[in-house]
């Protein structure tokens, strides 16, 4: 997983939980990288899972909630760092439709070593979209946060339902997104 994801996580932990907790979780996680990430480096995605576990143990907040909060933060940072993906889309659903066909495709071209999930989308009606997340990694809660972050970015209220269909250790989750108001 690209270092940008890790460095944003480290920044968020420092900002929300402080330097002491950050140092403690890095030390306890006993990471191959020792918690020193550069934006363009590539690291084992399991490091993020270990860091989330340790942060959960210290904060008493479950890992799914921490992942969702992180996803929301990450979306804001992606909007700052990669404004080109936001320039031509006017709402949350339109952004989500471009993740597979444009955003992650370009990320893959830029960083061939990136391991991206797939997102199929289907409109159920004008206000309802289904987004199907498939990945060999367990980041559906992060996806949830990125989706709710996308809604906030466009000032929209979207109800998100998550239906986990995974049965073989891979992630297979159907998100049903309903526009409100
Ligand atoms: C719009 C700007 C976005 C950019 C620039 C972007 C870029 C990236 C990058 C660089 C990674 C790390 C992949 C790796 O290094 O292995 C990643 C992973 C991921 N992205 Fe995006 N992304 C964006 C939006 C989104 C949105 C809106 C969603 C949710 C629908 C999403 C879902 C994910 C998930 C869940 C992962 C974790 C990897 C996995 O699940 O297998 N991304 N993305």
Please tell me about this protein's structure.
The protein has seven helices and four strands; from the N terminus they run ααααααββαββ. With 181 residues, the chain is an alpha+beta fold. The protein folds into two domains: 3-61; 91-180, H-NOX domain (Alpha-Beta Complex). A four-stranded antiparallel β-sheet has the order 1-2-4-3, covered by helices on one side. α1 packs across α4 (63-81) and α2 packs across α3. The protein starts with a helix and ends with a strand. The model has no long low-confidence stretch (mean pLDDT 97). Residues 1-2, 4-5, 78, 82, 85, 96, 99, 103-104, 107, 114-117, 119, 135, 137, 139, 142-143, 146-147, 150 line the site of protoporphyrin IX containing FE (HEM).
Task: Outline the fold blueprint.
Blueprint: H1 3-17, H2 19-29, H3 45-59, H4 63-81, H5 84-87, H6 92-110, E1 118-125, E2 128-135, H7 140-153, E3 157-164, E4 171-180
Antiparallel strand pairs: 1-2, 2-4, 3-4
Helix pairs in contact: 1-2, 1-4, 2-3, 4-7, 6-7
This protein binds protoporphyrin IX containing FE (HEM).
Briefly say what this structure is.
With 181 residues, the chain is an alpha+beta fold.
Using only C-alpha atoms, the radius of gyration works out to 16 Å
The biggest sheet, with number of strands, parallel, antiparallel or mixed sense and barrel status, is: 4 strands, antiparallel
Separation, N- and C-terminal Cα atoms: 37 Å
**Which regions have little confidence, pLDDT < 50, spanning 5+ residues?**
none
CATH arch. level architecture of the largest domain: Alpha-Beta Complex
Quote the beta fraction: 15-25%
The structural domain count equals: 2
Shape descriptor = globular
**What is the string of SSEs from the N terminus onward?**
HHHHHHEEHEE
Helix content: 40-55%
Judged by helices, strands and strand pairing, the structural class is alpha+beta
Read across the widest sheet, the strand sequence of neighbours is 1-2-4-3
What is the top-level CATH class of the largest domain? Alpha Beta
Q: Under CATH, the topology of the largest domain is which?
A: H-NOX domain
Q: What is the CATH homologous superfamily assignment of the largest domain?
A: H-NOX domain
